[in-house]
Amino acid sequence: MNNMSKAEYFRKYQPIWKKAGLIFERWRISEGLTKTLVADKIGISRSTLTKFERGKYVRDRKLIHKAYIMVQENHNLSLVISSLKSQQIQDIQIAFQYDGGQRIMTLHNAALRPAI
């Protein structure tokens, strides 16, 4: 917060927090995932997840944000892998599109690593 008062800090960042939280909430709902499931995967309480998705102040916001992205990636990857279970997988590239950009992962002989 440096030289900003708490009120100024919240006024400045809450619209950003609210937009990010809404994006995560819409994704979670569209995938049919419950708050309890996502909160458990992130390692936070359901009430903290609710505050995060509503754009309220939560401690460790950046860490929760990154963990939520990991939940998205793992969920999407598990959907891809389950759809390919009956096929022999050699190499496959999977692109995840998020509001903050794109992340590409490569599945190579059952080992997942970032594409270069």
Secondary-structure blueprint:
Blueprint: H1 6-30, H2 35-42, H3 46-54, H4 61-83, E1 91-98, E2 101-108, E3 111-114
Antiparallel strand pairs: 1-2, 2-3
- What is Rg? 17 Å
Strand/helix succession: HHHHEEE
Largest sheet composition = 3 strands, antiparallel
The first-level CATH class of the domain at 6-86 is given as Mainly Alpha
CATH level-two architecture of the domain at 6-86: Orthogonal Bundle
- CATH superfamily membership of the domain at 6-86, which one? lambda repressor-like DNA-binding domains
- Count of DSSP-assigned helices: 4
Summarize the structure.
56% of the residues lie in helices and 17% in strands.
Can you walk through the features of this model?
This protein has helices at residues 6-30, 35-42, 46-54, 61-83, and strands at 91-98, 101-108, 111-114. The protein is an alpha+beta fold and 116 residues long. It has a domain at 6-86: Orthogonal Bundle (434 Repressor (Amino-terminal Domain)), CATH 1.10.260.40. The longest helix is centred in the first third of the chain and has 25 residues, at 6-30.
Question: Which key features would you list for this structure?
Answer:
alpha+beta, 3 strands, 3-stranded antiparallel beta sheet, 434 Repressor (Amino-terminal Domain)
